[in-house]
Amino acid sequence: MSAEGQNARGGLAGPAVQRQPIEGEIGQYSPAKILGVWAAAALPMAALAWVVAPLIAGRLGGPVALPRALIVSLTVGLVWQFLLVMVLVRRERGSLRWAVLKDALWLRAPQSPTTGHAGGRLWLVLVPAVLLLAAEELLPSFPPVAGHDFSAFVGSGAGQAFLSGNWGWFALIAALMVFNTALGEELLFRGLLLPRMRGAFGRWDWLANGVLFAFYHLHVPWVIPQTLLVDTFAEAYLSRRYRSALIGIIVHSSQTVVFSVLLLLLVLR
């Protein structure tokens, strides 16, 4: 008699245990396809930052023309990344139902690499990961290109005057940050690419993922060294070890939460 039959008849098999997906159930990408997906994310962002936004700013005019153009342009680029992920998952799985997305993009609780248990105290790995990401600010970095540093814009008198009471632009910036940390970059790199890179890179897939993520930042190249040194471990390695893209999403989003509060205070002034 099958285990299911014994369960139904009150036999000794005990309650059914939900099977966890195995690695082989996610199709692996070739190196060429991995680089193709990387290029489809990185190159549009670079073009939007260094070509499209300056052209738009030239038409807008005013002291905050370039920051405004950058916000709009980069939001479009991040939305494109989300759509790219959806298209690739739809082609791979034939559906975009939540159950399919959850499995295909590792949108699940962290799983122990030894026992397979999920959630619980494993979530505590977020604490050192968030602290490590916060320490990124202490590392030396290259100076950003003038006009392309959003932090400098927010800290400037012109930026603060522009944001004061400006709920429309606050909403757009909030959308940019959501797509940046949850629905765009992290979903693509930790949700789509990372589970599909082991076939090409073996046990070092997380390192390759971290390198690709760092050099994806062609639109803000001054952050590449810091991203390579910190995000590779705080996001790529831990997401791979615990097979959960939610780790990378939550860790990356921790910066967004702090920045959103600061922006809200400026808008409320």
Class inferred from helices and paired strands: mainly alpha
Mean pLDDT: 85
Radius of gyration: 21 Å
Characterize the largest beta sheet: strand count, sense, and whether it forms a barrel.
none
Strand coverage percent: under 5%
Report the count of strand segments: 0
Shape: globular
Number of helices: 13
* Uncertain regions spanning at least 5 consecutive residues: 1-24
Order of helices and strands: HHHHHHHHHHHHH
Helix content: 55-70%
Distance between the termini: 71 Å
Q: How is this structure best described in words?
A:
The protein has 269 residues and is mostly helical. Helices cover 67% and strands 0% of the residues. The protein contains 13 helices and no strands. α2 runs antiparallel to α9, α5 crosses α13 and α11 runs antiparallel to α12. It is globular and about 55 Å long. The N terminus is likely disordered.
